Amino acid sequence: MTRVWLVDRDVDSRNLVTMTYATPDGERAFTRQAALDSLARRDGPTAALDVADDRLTAVDDRETVARYAAEAERVAESHDPDDEL
Q: Which InterPro entries has this protein been placed in (predicted)?
């Protein structure tokens, strides 16, 4: 298991929330989707998740790696892993 931090969240026109979590170095990511309604009825996304290594995908774009790494560091420094964001 690898700890990943919430680095991006997007809501589309169908109210589907896409949450991207990344490793602290920004090199690997995990994407989770949920309906906005379901997040309102239960616990929202947390600052971090522990994800099996085989569920992580490589981040190929260097700018995205840098952005994910910076955001993962910011979230990790200001939140406990179980904090709802």
A: DUF7967
